């Protein structure tokens, strides 16, 4: 059983053979579901707890949730990495971006946070091309542009009405883009469980002092939301990392555009946030961009040297 589990873990030597757009799309479906659920759970948890405390509890609980996968892949000894500094750097960036994301969902509507976050593909494409050697063709560029236009239609920001939450969400987008690109690089040498393991360890250590300064014991009604944040936060990144094994970052990230209309619907249903004709038009453009990006798409180019 253990040997079978080990053999099923993607390794640098066989990653190229596992390149598959349909598989990337499947893992991104898991990412979308978990991220939307986490947005709701995160907002509910912030009614009682500080964001720093939520992030620490998420990482600690997430470690225990991940541990069965760690055991399945050989135990703690198999979590060793030859790139510890890259893991630390990636998680410092991601920790800051995640804090900003949780803060932003308490300041502006859920759909607006996610919509502004989708300036992320611009930064991801630039970073991936410059540092990972990925290619940008006309189809990918058009998909990104259609998605961003759709996002702009949904948000419709005015220069005289910029909210601090919008600025935070924009900075978060840059941070997530850098983090996603670093994950793509890490998948060349480390398997997905190792990447998520180090995320939980590093971010737990980063969060101890800030969380201790604002700590309060959660009430009974908050605990389910905390556990849900931990579960979604842990395994959403597992899904994203798996998707990046099967396709380039410049292809995976535009699939995430679907989170905008889906979050808008959830915000409308749960919090009576606005869902109007502009959201429908923006959604149509976002869907068009995703369909264009997936049509006749090639497989991922992941070097094995």
Verbal overview:
There is one protein chain. This protein is mostly helical. It has 13 helices and no strands. It has helices spanning 2-7, 21-46, 51-72, 84-104, 110-117, 120-132, 138-155, 164-186, 192-214, 223-246, 249-255, 259-271, 277-294. The longest helix has 26 residues, at 21-46. It is globular, with a radius of gyration of 19 Å. The chain starts with a helix and ends in an 11-residue tail after the last helix.
Give structural attributes:
mainly alpha, disordered C terminus, 73% helix, 13 helices, disordered N terminus, 305 residues
Amino-to-carboxy terminus distance: 30 Å
Order of helices and strands: HHHHHHHHHHHHH
Give the strand content: under 5%
Q: What kind of oligomer do you see?
A: single chain
Characterize the overall form.
globular
How large is the count of helical segments?
13
Helical content (DSSP H or I, runs of 4+): over 70%
Please indicate the count of domains: 1
Q: What's the main sheet like?
A: none
Radius of gyration: 19 Å
């Amino acid at each position: 059983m253990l040997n079978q589990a080990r053999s099923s873990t993607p390794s640098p030597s066989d990653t190229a053979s596992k390149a598959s757009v349909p598989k990337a799309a499947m893992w991104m479906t898991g990412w979308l579901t978990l991220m939307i659920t986490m947005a709701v759970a995160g907002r509910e948890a912030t009614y009682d707890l500080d964001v720093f405390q939520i992030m620490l509890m998420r990482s600690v609980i997430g470690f225990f949730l991940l541990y069965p996968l760690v055991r399945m892949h050989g135990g703690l000894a198999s979590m060793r990495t030859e790139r510890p500094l890259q893991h630390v750097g990636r998680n410092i960036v991601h920790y800051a971006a995640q804090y900003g994301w949780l803060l932003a969902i308490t300041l502006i509507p859920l759909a607006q946070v996610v919509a502004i976050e989708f300036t992320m593909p611009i930064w991801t494409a630039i970073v991936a091309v410059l540092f990972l050697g990925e290619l940008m063709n006309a189809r990918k560029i058009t998909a990104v542009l259609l998605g961003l236009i759709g996002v702009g239609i949904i948000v419709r920001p005015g220069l005289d009405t910029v909210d601090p939450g919008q600025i935070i969400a924009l900075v978060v987008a840059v941070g997530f883009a850098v983090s996603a690109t670093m994950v793509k690089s890490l998948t060349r040498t480390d398997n997905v469980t190792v990447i998520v393991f180090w995320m939980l360890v590093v971010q737990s250590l980063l969060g101890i002092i800030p969380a201790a300064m604002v700590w309060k014991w959660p009430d009974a009604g908050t605990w389910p939301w905390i556990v849900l944040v931990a579960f979604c936060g842990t395994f959403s990144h597992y899904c994203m990392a798996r998707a990046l094994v099967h396709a380039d970052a410049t292809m995976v990230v535009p699939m995430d555009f679907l989170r905008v209309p889906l979050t808008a619907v959830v915000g409308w249903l749960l919090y009576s946030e606005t869902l109007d004709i502009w959201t429908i038009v923006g959604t149509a453009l976002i869907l068009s961009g995703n369909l264009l990006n997936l049509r006749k798409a090639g497989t991922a180019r992941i070097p094995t040297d």
